[in-house]
Design brief:
CATH class of the largest domain: Alpha Beta
Strand content: 15-25%
Shape: globular
Structural class: alpha+beta
Order of helices and strands: HHEHEEHEEEEEHEEEHH
Length: 311
């Protein structure tokens, strides 16, 4: 029923564009017949708006994946680089929160592990909205930052890495069914920021999916039940993503082409010193407006990658 509702919305949006285009064509024909050039600017503005909406609708055709319309779960993990990489992971978290805000998506941090000195070791957040996963999958891979370190006494240039994972939000008992007997659930006291009350009870949850070995933890909420529900949500998303990767590997094997694990790819570099540049290594697109990118303006980067991926 949800899929049917989405398809009806898509069909209706195309029909509305068709109605507006037909009405505009009739008005243009009428103006030409009456020889009234004063309406040319009005027609031009309406045509520009229609063209923009048509281009947007055509671009959405790249979202042909099974889960592209779904909400997304983004996981960011600090990599090599110590405190600098943990700070880089926090910068990426801010970038994606701003990106979600720009697109009108709902963003919620599900779990966060703070760094010892600064930044974060890892964070998992949910991005809610139509096509959130379709866009977010353009962010999967290793992100590299080159800058003058704020955590180096000599203020030398450092290179930091962070891994971004994108998972589709799974529907419970529809996309994947989890057998409770295949889970090992451990509870422990939460650590990190949150006040003394956080550590008074064993509210943090660790779930191990025995058949796959996938481990999911959550300690953000005060309630053990809430943490367990969030951990199960992340586990379902990881199981769906694992199935997608298995199918992709099988398809690549049938084609006779080897595909490396995505976590090993450096997809994008952000250089803040000695010059400013963001470069996507998959499309070779680059821009010097690093401030806008780090403030969540990812549309052009994502659009170019998604279009190249369907060619």
């Amino acid at each position: 029923m949800q899929r049917l509702a989405r398809l009806k919305d898509d069909v209706e949006s195309w029909r509305e564009l068709e109605r507006r285009a037909t009405a505009l064509e009739e008005l243009v024909d009428l103006a030409i017949a009456e020889g009234d050039p004063s309406l040319e600017d009005a027609f031009s503005n309406e045509l520009t708006e229609l063209e923009g909406q048509l281009e947007d609708r055509e671009f959405r055709a790249v979202f042909s994946g099974e889960f592209d319309e779904r909400s997304a779960i983004l996981a960011i993990h600090a990599g090599a680089g110590g405190t600098d990489s943990q700070d880089w992971a926090q910068m990426l978290l801010r970038m994606y929160l701003r990106w979600a805000e720009r697109r009108g998506y709902r963003a919620r941090i599900l779990d966060l592990s703070p760094g010892e000195e600064a930044g974060i070791k890892s964070v998992t957040l949910e991005i809610g909205g139509k096509y959130a996963y379709g866009y977010a999958k353009a962010e999967k891979g290793v992100h590299r930052l080159i800058r003058l370190s704020a955590y180096d006494a000599l203020h030398q240039r450092h290179t930091s890495f962070a891994l971004v994972e994108a998972l589709p939000v799974a529907e419970e008992n529809v996309d994947v069914v989890i057998n409770p007997e295949e889970l090992r659930v451990d509870v422990y006291r939460a650590s990190g920021a949150g006040g003394q009350s956080v550590q008074k009870t064993s509210s943090a949850v660790r779930i191990v999916h025995i058949p796959t070995g996938i481990i999911v933890t959550c300690q953000n909420e005060r309630s053990q039940l809430q943490n367990k529900e969030i951990a199960l949500k992340i586990l379902r998303a990881r199981l769906v993503q694992q199935d997608l990767e298995r199918k992709a590997e099988e398809q690549a094997r049938l084609k006779g082409k080897h595909v490396s694990a995505e976590g090993g790819h450096q997809i994008r570099s952000y250089t803040l010193h000695p010059y400013r540049q963001v470069k996507d290594h998959r499309t070779d697109y680059e821009t010097s407006d690093t401030a806008a990118i780090l403030d969540g303006d990812l549309d052009e980067l994502q659009k170019r990658y998604l279009l190249s991926a369907v060619k």
